[in-house]
Write a structure and sequence with these properties.
- The structure holds two protein chains of two kinds.
- Helix content of chain A is 0%, strand content 52%.
- By secondary structure, chain A is an all-beta fold.
- In chain A, strands 2, 4, 5, 6, 9, 10 and 11 form a seven-stranded mixed β-sheet that branches. A four-stranded antiparallel β-sheet of chain A has the order 1-3-8-7, with no helix packed on it.
- By secondary structure, chain B is mainly β.
- Chain B is 0% helix and 45% strand.
- In chain B, strands 2, 5, 6, 9, 10 and 11 form a six-stranded mixed β-sheet that branches.
- The chains are: A mainly beta, B mainly beta.
- At the A-B interface, strand 5 and strand 9 of A face strand 5, strand 6 and strand 10 of B.
């Protein structure tokens, strides 16, 4: 089945530094990738939607300059948290989808636990 | 506005008891709904989607457009069903993005 690899699984960084999270679709071409943020035992909050070769669409309230998303190929999307602060500490999850046809599911990465100290 | 609501944060049942996890949605378009499960320390996995009408691990869910609901049911809960369950709505006219309910933690006691 479809597999999405997300890396790193866990990262600790200092305040003010930037962190890059990668999301790769291993055996399919992901025309669309989604980035979510999840707080403990809470829902997944959609941050942005990215389509290969175009700018990401951010959800209301998400700072695009802080959370840089790149989707340069059909198998790779990256999320860079710039100038990280402790409040950015969270669990970040990517999801990939094929095409846009009805009935297609979404494959999720295993998530990245970001801790900013 | 589009919204997915899971009213129960925690549902605790005994093994062998029936389970129903509630999900209601608000969407002006034609809904496409999913249930995802997240076991402890694992990634989200698709449990089922209303389009395929399949039953996975004994779970079923029926889309009720009149009540705007997509409740997840299982007649006899097992301990291994303990997990977080998320109902999700695909917004096909918004790039296919998926929005989630708040999640329900199912705890099946022996």
């Amino acid at each position: 089945g479809a597999v999405v690899s997300q890396h790193p699984s866990r990262v600790i960084c200092k305040s003010g530094t930037s962190v890059k999270i990668e999301c790769r679709s291993l055996d399919f071409q992901a025309t669309t990738m989604f980035w979510y943020r999840q707080f403990p035992k809470q829902s997944l909050m959609l941050m942005a939607t990215s389509n290969e070769g175009s700018k990401a669409t951010y959800e209301q309230g998400v700072e695009k300059d802080k959370f840089l998303i790149n989707h340069a190929s059909l198998t790779l999307s990256t999320l860079t948290v710039t100038s990280a602060h402790p409040e950015d500490s969270s669990f970040y999850i990517c999801s990939a989808s094929q095409a846009g046809e009805r009935g297609y599911g979404y494959t999720f990465g295993s998530g990245t636990r970001l801790t900013v100290v | 506005a589009q919204r997915v609501t899971q009213p129960e944060k925690l549902l605790s049942v005994f093994k062998g008891a029936p389970v129903e996890l509630k999900c209601n949605y608000s969407y002006s378009g034609s809904p496409e709904l999913f249930w995802y499960v997240q076991y402890s320390r694992q990634r989200l996995q698709l449990l089922l989607r209303h389009i395929s009408r399949e039953s996975i691990k004994g779970f079923t869910a029926d889309l009720n457009k009149g009540e705007t609901s997509f409740h997840l049911k299982k007649p006899f809960a097992q301990e291994e069903d303990s997990a977080m369950y998320y109902c999700a709505l695909r917004l096909y006219n918004q790039g296919g993005k998926l929005i989630f309910g708040q999640g329900t933690e199912l705890s099946v006691k022996p």
